[in-house]
Amino acid sequence: MKKGLFYFACITLLSLSAIAQPSTEVYLFDLKANGGEMSISNPINVSSNPGRYDNQPSFSQKTGELFFVSQDATPQIDIFIYNPARGTKTNFSNNASNEYSPTLTPDGKYISCIREVDGTQLLWKFPIRKGEPAIVVPDLVIGYHAWRDDNTLVSFVLGDPQTLQVSDLLAKTNKVVASNIGRSIHKIPGGNLISFLQNRKGRPALIQSLDTETGKIETICEAMEGSQDMAWTPKGEIIMGQGSKLFVWSPATKGWVEAADLGATFQLNSITRLAVSPKGDKLAVVVNE
User: Fold this and answer.
1) CB 3.0 to 4.6 Å from 247: which of 105, 130, 210, 256, for a disulfide?
2) 215: how many CB neighbours lie within 10 A of its CB?
3) CA dist., res. 191 & res. 148, Å (int)
4) 111 - beta bridge partners?
5) Cα–Cα–Cα angle for 45, 49, 51, nearest 5°?
6) Exposed, middle or buried, 69 (CB in 10 Å: 0-12/13-18/19+)?
7) CA pair distance 27, 268, nearest whole angstrom
8) Cut 0.85: pTM above it
9) Which residues pair with 32 in a beta bridge?
10) Tens digits of per-residue pLDDT, 78-117?
């Protein structure tokens, strides 16, 4: 396939992802996790948007507020902010474009996101307070991203195959460090390493760490079979979903332990994306309706 046609196809697929996927909801739970043991309680449907796409939760590391995207009847996709203390939901972006994957920048001044404008999807940043949004990386078709620091970005870049790239925003350079990766990219708590999923044919993906300064990649553990989404707790535990169940891995156990069955307890199934609050006391979970 020619390069131009390939990127057109990638952009089209990303644009239609909300329509093609089943209707989803974002739930928020109280979380207790320590040393490989985990319990959740008090589910709240924070999206409360039946029949539509609600997804891609992430927490503000500054305020503990929850960001996620939600689709209206148009079907336009906007960024919403949920305040757990107040129980309020606010449309943050509220414009004619579609936004995906909202993430707070390290300085706490912006929400970075994938934004679709006139059929083109690029990584943008929106000021939390006043100001106009701006493009962050003009030359990459980014699907998902994580910040190492104010000037270092790690991204899942669409291509054949998809690649993990490190962008130095000051030097305006992009470097490929891995390929055939999964969509879940996160900064590992307590340092500057970035985790990502390295896909393997016929076997579960590997959860690996990347040192963006040296380029060194190390394996942390094997992911849950069939799962592409994970979240870190502040204490260095990993949470993944498989079907209706949540599992936790910790440096102490070095293995996956079943922690909760959302189907049996809360009648919630098909877990995908996850996010843990900065204090480790809240867990956001995306499930199919």
Assistant:
1) 256
2) 11
3) 9
4) 104, 126
5) 120
6) buried
7) 10
8) yes
9) 39
10) 999 999 999 999 999 998 899 999 999 999 999 999 999 8
